[in-house]
Specification:
heterodimer, A: about 290 residues, mainly alpha, Fumarate Reductase Cytochrome B subunit, about 70% helix, B: about 350 residues, two-stranded antiparallel ribbon
């Protein structure tokens, strides 16, 4: 459930370090172990460093904004007042909220700038755009959930759920930034636009925040943590890596695009052998 | 042994409570049912019913020692408290002659006699701004007897009488302004729902109203009545005035801010900035545009250069509707539908996913 841009290049790496370390040992056992380890640890770099940094920055800022914003949404709840006191009073909380808001706005700006620059220079592929296929996938996935299909649809680099969350974050952020700026600069707003926008922006800011929080709690927490397929923790957005095995399961089309379709319909052990071959062959990076 | 001691210690406290309760019950005068002073009082009155009886104090002022039996009997304490209950030490053969340098010093020295029964109330006065001055040696501030009287103590729960004889005595300017306000005029018409001085300032623990703390807490005073639907119903005043203020940015500030943190730049708008305090007027009775002009002025005190349409940012205590603030209303409506739609949809997806995993096993 991670929404980040396609890095310029997707590198395919094997654990070269462990390979060179173990190359000096000659026991048969070690060789066997090496093969198994390599098969398991074969991974694809899925997220660029910049994408990973953005994700961590969103976690930090989103959390701080919720901690300083939600008590202001429900100021008369005892827990809110406790939190406000703990954070140094309402003035400190508001200052912190605005500081984080400004940083968040800068992050959104930097994100959009890198996306647009990447698209213009053709270093980034627009893999997060919704296509007709995503609607078919959503229906296919629903049919699979209901037992009408034996397997879920094959997804590309991002499945429709990840795209939904990405675009939710983008539009949600834009709403939060714009309404936040209106609330931050009420005088300027009233000079340029009808003053009724200010209370409207407050309602919008507060409700959009609630929606964002609920989506993270329900959707992202499930997708990245509680989902039995990744439980307890999907680390790929932090490490940037995804195992080839997972890639084949969760993003079959991307996998096929990278490695071809030969491994389809094979058993676990066959797949492992397959992977070993690939590792030996050394897959060239996609451009 | 221990419990015996405890009961011995508790005895005076119980007596005090009983005495206090008895003295504070308004019915006590009627229950005594007397019109003639009791014997012990009558004894004192043998001398003190003489209207010409005076005492020359050290500063040369003459203090009347006359006590009107009828006034005393009609007072709250009439027939229940005897002279020596308050005037301790004035037994059969009490000294004659000036014992105090001035009348005021005598009053201040003797008012503490009230605490023998009214201990709680006396304690509250110690927190008051009046006592603060008294302790600092300013003797014009009121003590018990200045507001309640002495031999003529009356039921203090009659707002109008109490106010005009206590607060108005020293604060005539404020009283004058208050009398012209929507509350003051209603009180003059015997509408007891409106606040008199003590309803906001309290009767005994009167706080300094010029502090940031009093200012920040002041909405509570207004909301105590204006947030009470039952009390507001006869006057057709919506209680939303309270909830809309509290929900506003400034209402949150006033409710949560620590007074010590409030500096000049943090001037917090409460009810009184727009509506006034002693001079509160009904916005419904103000000339058209007057309230809006006032609100703009208040906005400008912090938001420098706020234009005439800036007050539209404040919805004037209206709940958003298609008539008042349609934009706000529509945004609110949108999220009321959109949030449950999205969140329930996602929960459904998660549950379907889990269902499928469970079925596949």
């Amino acid at each position: 459930m991670n929404h980040t841009l396609t890095p310029g290049k997707t590198e395919i790496q094997a654990e070269t370090q462990s390979e060179s370390r173990t190359a000096h040992r000659s026991s048969i056992l070690e060789t066997a172990k090496r093969g198994a380890a390599r098969a398991k640890s074969a991974y694809v770099v899925r997220f660029s460093r910049w994408a990973r940094v953005q994700h961590v920055a969103v976690i930090v800022l989103f959390t701080l904004l919720l901690l300083t914003g939600m008590p202001q949404k429900w100021p008369y709840v005892a827990a809110s007042q406790w939190l406000i006191d703990a954070l140094g009073g309402i003035f400190a909380v508001r200052w912190l909220h605005r500081a984080c808001g400004v940083l968040f706005a800068l992050l959104v700006g930097a994100h959009l700038a890198t996306v647009i620059a990447g698209l213009l220079t053709r270093r980034t592929r627009p893999t997060l755009l919704f296509t007709r296929r995503d609607f078919a996938d959503a229906i296919g996935s629903l049919r699979y959930y209901l037992g009408r299909e034996p397997s879920p649809p094959k997804y590309g680099r991002y499945d429709y759920r990840q795209k939904f969350e990405y675009w939710g974050l983008i539009f949600g952020s834009l709403i939060m930034v714009v309404s936040g700026l209106i609330l931050y600069f009420p005088l300027l707003t009233a000079r340029l636009l009808p003053a009724e926008l200010i209370p409207a922006a407050k309602v919008m800011h507060s409700n959009e925040a609630l929606l964002a929080m609920l989506i993270i709690l329900v959707w992202h927490l499930y997708g990245a943590h509680l989902n039995p397929e990744v439980f307890p923790f999907d680390a790929s957005i932090f490490s940037g890596k995804i195992s080839k095995d997972r890639l084949r399961h969760e993003h079959a089309l991307e996998y096929e695009e990278l490695f071809g379709t030969e491994s389809e319909g094979k058993t676990e052990s066959e797949k492992e052998k397959e992977e070993e071959k690939e590792g030996d062959r050394g897959v060239t990076p996609r451009t | 042994m221990k419990s015996t001691w405890r009961s011995i210690l508790a005895l005076p406290a119980l007596l005090l409570l009983a005495g206090g309760a008895g003295a504070q019950t308004p019915e006590s005068t009627e229950s005594s049912g007397l019109t003639e002073p009791p014997e012990a009082v009558a004894y004192c009155l043998m001398c003190h019913s003489d209207e010409s009886m005076v005492l020359e104090l050290e500063d040369g002022e003459e203090m009347s020692l006359f006590v009107d039996a009828e006034t005393y009997m009609a007072s709250s304490h009439g027939g229940d408290l005897f002279c020596t209950d308050c005037h301790e030490g004035y037994d059969d053969e009490h000294p004659v002659g000036a014992t105090f340098p001035s009348r005021r010093e005598y009053e201040i020295a003797s008012y503490e006699t009230c605490k023998k029964c009214h201990f709680d109330t006396y304690n509250r006065t110690l927190e008051s701004v009046h006592y603060e001055y008294l302790a600092a040696g300013v003797d014009i501030v009121p003590v018990c007897t200045d507001c309640h009287g002495t031999h003529d103590i009356a039921d203090p729960h009659q707002k109008q009488a109490m106010m005009s004889r206590s607060c108005a005595e020293c604060h005539p300017d404020v009283f004058e302004v208050y009398s012209q306000s929507v509350h003051g005029r209603a009180l003059a018409e015997d509408i007891a729902d409106v606040p008199a001085c003590a309803d906001c300032h309290t009767a005994h623990s009167i706080e300094d109203p010029t502090t940031a703390g009093f200012h920040l807490a002041s909405p509570e005073l207004c909301i105590r009545c204006h947030g009470d639907e039952e009390r507001m119903a006869p006057y057709g005043i919506p209680t939303e005035v309270a909830s809309t203020y509290l929900a506003d940015f400034h209402g949150v500030t006033a409710s949560l801010a620590d007074p010590s943190e409030v500096k000049e730049r943090h001037l917090v708008v409460t009810c009184v900035e727009c509506h006034g305090y002693h001079d509160i007027a009904s916005p419904a009775l103000m000339p058209p545009g007057a309230m809006k002009a006032r609100v703009q002025e208040v906005c400008q005190s912090c938001h420098e250069g706020a234009a005439s349409d800036f007050p539209a940012a404040w919805l004037s205590h209206f709940r958003p509707s298609l008539r008042h603030a349609p934009l706000v209303f529509l945004v609110e409506l949108f999220y009321k539908i959109f949030i449950p739609f999205v969140v329930l949809g996602l929960i459904l997806q998660v549950m379907l996913h889990l269902y499928r995993i469970a079925m596949s096993r």
